Task: structure prediction
Amino acid sequence: IALARETRALGCDILLGPCVNIMRTPLAGRNFESYSEDPYLAGRIGIGWVRGLQSQGVGASLKHFACNNQEIERFRGDSIVDERTLREIYLAQFEAIVKEAQPWTVMCAYNRINGTYASQNDYLQNQILREEWGFEGVVVSDWGANHTIYESVEGGLDLEMPGPARYYGSLLVDAVRIWQIEESTIDTAVRRILHMIIKSGRMDDAPLPEGAVNVPEHQALARELAEASITLLQNSDGLLPLKQVRSIAVIGPNATEARIGGGGSSYLEPPYRISPLEGLKAALGQDVEIRYTQGCDNYTDLPALKPTMSPPGHEGVERGFWASYYNNASLEGDPVAERMDLYLDDWRLEPPAGVNENAFSVRWTGQFEVAEEGRHLFRLRNSGTCRLYIGDELLVESPAEGAEPEQPVTEASAHIELTAGVSHTVKVEYIKPADAEPREVRVLAAYDPRPEDDDRLERAVALAKESDVAIIFAGMGQGFESEGGDRPHMNLPGRQDELIKAVNAANHKTVVVLNCGAPVEMSWAREIGALLLAYYPGQEAGTAIANILTGAVNPSGRLPVTFPARYEDNPTYVNYPGLRQVHYGEGIFVGYRYYEHKSIDPLFPFGFGLSYTTFRYSDLVMPDRVAASDSVEITFTVTNTGDLAGKEVVQLYVSDPVSTLARPVKELKRFMKVALEPGESTRVTFTLDERALAFYDPVAKQWVVEPGEFSAMIGSSSRDIRLIGTFTLD
Result:
């Protein structure tokens, strides 16, 4: 509902989500946008997401249909997937969401599936999505994913994005005229689009409902969601929550920066963000001495330049760059539009209203300070021509000459000595070439310490020795996980592993807080005192993390994906990334299904997460025998046996040990989060339907439930099973 209100306030009618693609390989660049390695979990989250959004008259765009599980060669790669794997792992979540929530639109993927592009895949879009599942909405292409004039319309695609259409304009008209495609097929697609417009309310004269952006209730919701998801992975000797602590060493590259997401089209800048350091200081006040040092950095590309003060001539307003736009290529005359930009980090620069998009120029001005003296590297990456000034000095100029036609972007960089604590004025000028699309304008800056002066790690170790507790905020730098490319490895970037080991050796009361949206290798995980996985917790990050660390909130998050001990253990190791074809050779054994099938112990299993309290499972009640047409009701008791209020995520897995086709050791089929006070108990009831017991038979081309003995496994994770019951299906 909150997402719908924010979308409506921005003048939009459809939100491009949810992304429910399966996290197949730990290196996939868009894992942070997806929900899980398990289709049942991804489906249930997606159903709630779509229902809530569309209950407010804002449409969802379920994506990316289908098998968009890596970024390497995503525009043209061919995902080779057998029918059973396709149905059980990569389509099941789409099926559940379509049948139970009916999203307004489904967005096709870029890639091919078994030889045919998703955008023109008749089998997926017409036969399965529409005829089998009953989808009534619009199939829309991902941006630039359509490659044909009439074949894609016949294959089920209704709307080509972005506009203006590349194939669906006059070319499609000509295709109708010369009988390459029937006009009735076009009419069907048009009717679906018109129905979508009617749902949006744009056909009526009545005013649309007003939305709201960044209101207090949405801020509170952002904090609550972050608190509910943060996952406690290790807590030796009850190190957390923090208690009787007089001094804390705050260390790490993510301590002063709230990491809110990966890179690409999903990224947007919130109105504010609270860093972990700010959150801790606010939570602990003057009672605890908190000192900070960076230790190391974690960026692989220079992070975007951020102004630390108001722009010149606009003192007292928000920090940012003041942008003045001109309808000429010479930055002359009066600006036709002005606005404030928080960052100069636009992958597709969109000028404000009133600006001639075919020929314009823009000047940004801002002020910033550097934390440490020394050499700083500035880089420009841009289309057109871009110039960067520090004060009155032209430091960097990056012209477009020599750029590739398909990606007209060039870059240039230069160093400059800067003094800490002094206000520096920065000015950036951008000139768009006539009749060329503005692809990217970006200004990046970062402290570039000379190797002989870089003693940050040593200073971090010294600070840790002097403090009661050391908290390291580590993980991904800006854009390391991103649309457009997969991660090159499963390690933390930079010297972060070295930093964690060194600080832990100096102070065994070391807590590591990680920002990442996918598994990382952690050779040090079992040696440190405590480990929190914060994912990308949004604008209230610092407050939420501090509430978990101090015990104001009891952690209750659970892992939606398995963390392998090493990259070589993951099920896609021998099949990823592929060349022109990506063979899904692991079949249905994805994620925890694979690790249990192969008896490989992960670093942290699927569904895992600790609490500051403890829970007991008892009193399992379930039938011994079940008729083929009946549901299975399973009831049991969960009790909070600790001293603190807490929430437990109860998980039900089903096992079919004897089957015609090979099946996983267990599969998640139900889950529920229950909140309990100390000593409180509750009865939990799960009901299994026929589909929860079924597998897909590719020969019979249908879901099949075979009679025999099934096991219901109930626990706190896929590897922490507390209760087991069996029943026989007649």
